């Protein structure tokens, strides 16, 4: 048992079509077959194949309805089905906000709100990914030590109606760092980084992606509710058919008994 746990905790190693793709599909299929198939086998031997399937399907869909409702209340557990988390995405890099394509960003310095230095953690993290990331098309620096965030503004984000929001933009103004001023003799304190004299600032335009963190649970809840209702209706219709057949059989038996009764002698 210990060896199996150690093997399961090891890394996959070289990724191939078999491991983890096909192997993962087979593990999920076998787990569903054992979990759902064992219940259906037990119900099918007692209630019959069709009614056993309806009861098992109703139980599974009802369980998924309750589970998806639990997912909607909290998205923190690791096993929760959830979509994209809200985050900032880099849109473009311009010299001045007035050169941005979005009209709201062009006047962000006057119509927007200046973000305090203590509240720029999300913006600086997104700016680092956009300006220094290897896969980013907006990368103009090699590391976050090569630039300095001068100022930051944001605009939008208000609710447009019950379901939609006004696009939320942010403008992060950065400048190249004077690396020569940071080269000091060994033992001397390193000075604070400063903008390089004569170099123009750059403005990174960010757009807030609100994500879809609760969209998958809503989809699962809707699909499971429809399937659960259909299963309940199928069992209800089956019960109505059985009652109607029983009434017709009792009526036919009564008519046959009346036909075989001897006529009274006058």
Describe the model:
The chain has 266 residues and is an alpha+beta fold. The chain folds into 2 domains: 20-81 and 215-253, no CATH class; 87-209, no CATH class. 47% of the residues lie in helices and 13% in strands. It is built from 7 helices and 5 strands; from the N terminus they run H-H-H-E-H-H-E-H-E-E-E-H. It has a 5-stranded antiparallel beta sheet. Helix 2 (21-47) packs across helix 3. The longest helix has 46 residues, at 215-260. The chain is elongated and about 125 Å long. 13% of the residues are buried. The mean pLDDT is 86.
Attribute tags:
elongated; alpha+beta; 13% strand; five-stranded antiparallel beta sheet; 2 domains; 7 helices
Write down the Rg. 34 Å
Q: Segments where pLDDT lies below 50 for 5+ residues?
A: none
Largest sheet: 5 strands, antiparallel
Shape: elongated
Mean pLDDT: 86
Distance between the termini: 91 Å
Element order: H for helix, E for strand: HHHEHHEHEEEH
DSSP, total strands: 5
Fraction in beta strands: 5-15%
Task: Please provide a brief summary of the model.
This protein has helices at 2-9, 21-47, 49-73, 103-106, 108-111, 121-132, 215-260, and strands spanning 87-94, 113-114, 147-155, 169-176, 202-209. The chain has 266 residues and is α+β, with helices and mostly antiparallel strands.
């Amino acid at each position: 048992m210990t060896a199996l746990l150690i093997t399961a905790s090891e890394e996959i190693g070289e990724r191939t079509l078999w491991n983890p793709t096909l192997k993962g599909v087979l593990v999920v299929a076998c787990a569903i077959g054992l979990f759902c198939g064992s219940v259906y086998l037990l119900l099918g031997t007692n209630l019959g194949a069709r009614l056993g399937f309806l009861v098992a399907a109703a139980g599974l869909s009802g369980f998924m309805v309750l589970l998806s409702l639990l997912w909607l209340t909290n998205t923190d557990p690791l096993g929760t089905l959830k979509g994209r988390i809200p985050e900032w995405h880099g849109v473009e890099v311009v010299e001045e906000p007035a050169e941005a394509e979005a009209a709201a960003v062009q006047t962000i310095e006057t119509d927007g709100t200046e973000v305090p230095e203590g509240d720029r953690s999300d913006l600086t993290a997104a700016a680092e990914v956009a300006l220094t990331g290897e896969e980013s098309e907006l990368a103009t620096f090699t590391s976050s030590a090569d630039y300095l965030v001068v100022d930051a503004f944001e605009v939008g984000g208000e609710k447009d109606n019950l379901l939609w929001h006004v696009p939320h933009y942010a403008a992060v103004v950065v400048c190249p760092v004077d690396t020569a001023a940071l080269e000091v003799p060994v033992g001397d304190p390193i000075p604070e980084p400063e903008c390089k004299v004569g170099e123009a600032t750059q403005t990174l335009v960010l757009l807030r992606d609100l994500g879809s963190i609760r969209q998958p649970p809503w989809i699962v809840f809707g699909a499971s509710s429809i399937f659960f209702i259909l299963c309940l209706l199928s069992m209800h219709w089956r019960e109505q058919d059985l009652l109607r057949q029983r009434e017709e059989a009792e009526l036919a038996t009564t008519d046959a008994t009346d036909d075989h009764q001897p006529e009274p002698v006058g």
